[in-house]
């Protein structure tokens, strides 16, 4: 007789989502309660949670014991029983004591926004660096909350909120976690050192680095794939890709640059994640140019742009030259398209439109390589001629009388460094404008 095989399947999380809006949050212009709750629904679905219902509460301040008030907790318990939920997901971060109190009262697993995001990251991490960073963020989050994780720690087999290192929490205590955090930080330092060496090599070879940044699901990975034919995972979901992907990209002139897709940002990004993923996000900090990809079809576009700006400022990358790309114009209404800025360093594009991609390639080249300028330099001025070859890409040179006419593509940043010297020799190359040539 064939032996009977018993398969243990984890029960799918069925959740009620809870949001608390305090007076302090209402005073913060950047906080959008409805958007945050809608985003929590998307996050939950991305993590594999079946969302049964949502509940929100307006309250003066947070309840130190129940987070929401006791009356609201009783209302939540009734809703959980009616819907047959086994999980409650909160849109804000909870303390260990609040988790413990709510678990005992509601008799379901309690997850907060940070833990949910960490869980998604644990599912998405594929490279050694990504796995280290996720585990470091999870343990940093867990350490001050050990006293409130009773029920979670007692449930073997993991599930939402306990993937990755969460499955070994039963065997850990504060000392073990601190030791593990120290070990992970050491491993991460080695990764940072390795990445820094790569950057230095790139700088020595003169290869330009361009970083794609933006709110999660803005279309960064799609843009990378369309520009470089990269075999990157593209899906209409939050944090579809986590680990940074770098690919070579050829500009219209034939020059090769490196294009890197970074992890997407999100409102209320956990501080532990910003700290742990600093090594990855350094790609944005070290880039010669940042392409800020914006979901132009999103109703929350302004808020999302503000969140990205805040994270870039925290990383120290806000001073790097940027081009803002209003993506997904193919999904916008005519009114939405008209509202998107096109002046300055902004472009309206669709990642699936070949003409838009060509325009973007030309804009990137102009930003990195600079404009074509022509210099008339006396042949005996070898130092100036040598300088032009060093700072720019010489496209053409010819002798005219006793002078050298040198056409150079020079980066604006490098051109500014030369200051008065090159300004004295330069004339813009403009067809049919007959500008006078300056003589030395």
UniProtKB/TrEMBL annotation:
Annotated GTP binding sites: 214-221, 239-243, 261-264, 327-330, 350-352
Keywords per UniProt: Cytoplasm, GTP-binding, Magnesium, Metal-binding, Nucleotide-binding
GO molecular function annotations of the record: GTP binding; GTPase activity; metal ion binding; ribosome binding
Compartment annotation: Cytoplasm
Residue numbers binding Mg(2+): 221, 241
Start and end residues of each Hflx-type G domain: 208-372
GO cellular component: a single term: cytoplasm
The keyword Magnesium belongs to this UniProt entry's keyword annotation: yes
Cofactor: Mg(2+)
Physiological role: GTPase that associates with the 50S ribosomal subunit and may have a role during protein synthesis or ribosome biogenesis.
Family named by the database record: Belongs to the TRAFAC class OBG-HflX-like GTPase superfamily. HflX GTPase family.
PANTHER family in the cross-refs: GTP-BINDING PROTEIN 6-RELATED, GTP-BINDING PROTEIN HFLX
Self-association state and partner proteins as the record states: Monomer. Associates with the 50S ribosomal subunit.
Name of the featured protein: GTPase HflX
Organism encoding this protein: Paenibacillus xerothermodurans
């Amino acid at each position: 007789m064939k032996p009977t095989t018993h398969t243990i399947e984890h029960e799918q999380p069925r959740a009620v989502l809870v949001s608390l809006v305090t007076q302090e949050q209402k005073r913060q212009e950047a906080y959008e309660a409805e958007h945050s709750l809608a985003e929590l629904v998307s996050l939950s679905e991305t993590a594999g949670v079946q969302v049964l219902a949502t509940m929100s509460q307006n309250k003066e301040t947070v309840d130190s014991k129940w987070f929401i008030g006791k009356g609201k907790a009783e209302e939540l318990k009734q809703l959980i029983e009616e819907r047959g939920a086994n999980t409650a997901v909160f849109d804000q971060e909870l303390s260990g004591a609040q988790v413990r109190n709510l678990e005992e009262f509601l008799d379901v697993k309690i997850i907060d926004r940070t833990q949910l995001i960490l869980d998604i990251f644990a599912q998405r991490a594929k490279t050694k660096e990504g796995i280290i960073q996720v585990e470091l963020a999870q343990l940093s989050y867990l350490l001050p909350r050990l006293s409130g994780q009773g029920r979670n720690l007692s449930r073997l087999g993991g599930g939402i909120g306990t993937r990755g290192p969460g499955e070994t929490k039963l065997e850990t205590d504060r000392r073990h976690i601190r030791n593990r955090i120290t070990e992970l930080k050491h491993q991460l330092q080695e990764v940072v050192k390795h990445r820094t060496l790569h950057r230095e090599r790139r700088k020595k070879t003169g290869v330009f680095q361009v970083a794609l940044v933006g709110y999660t699901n803005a279309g960064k990975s799609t843009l990378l794939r369309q520009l470089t034919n990269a075999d990157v995972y593209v899906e209409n979901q939050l944090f579809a890709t986590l680990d940074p992907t770098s690919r070579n990209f050829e500009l219209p002139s034939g020059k090769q640059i490196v294009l890197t897709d970074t992890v997407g940002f999100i409102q209320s990004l956990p501080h532990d994640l910003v700290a742990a993923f600093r090594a990855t996000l350094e790609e944005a900090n070290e880039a010669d140019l940042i392409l800020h990809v914006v979901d132009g079809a999103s109703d929350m576009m302004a808020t999302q742009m503000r969140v990205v700006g805040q994270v870039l400022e925290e990383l120290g990358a806000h001073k790097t030259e940027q081009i803002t790309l209003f993506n997904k114009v193919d999904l916008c209404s005519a009114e939405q398209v008209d509202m998107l800025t096109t002046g300055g360093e902004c472009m309206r594009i669709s990642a699936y439109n070949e003409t838009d991609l060509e325009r973007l390639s030309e804009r990137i080249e102009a930003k990195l390589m600079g404009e074509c300028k022509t210099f008339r330099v006396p042949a005996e001025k070898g130092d100036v001629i040598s300088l032009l070859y060093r700072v720019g890409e010489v496209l053409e040179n010819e002798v005219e009388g006793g002078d050298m006419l040198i056409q150079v593509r020079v980066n604006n940043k490098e051109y500014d460094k030369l200051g008065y010297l090159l300004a004295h020799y330069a004339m813009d190359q403009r067809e049919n404008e007959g500008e006078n040539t300056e003589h030395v």
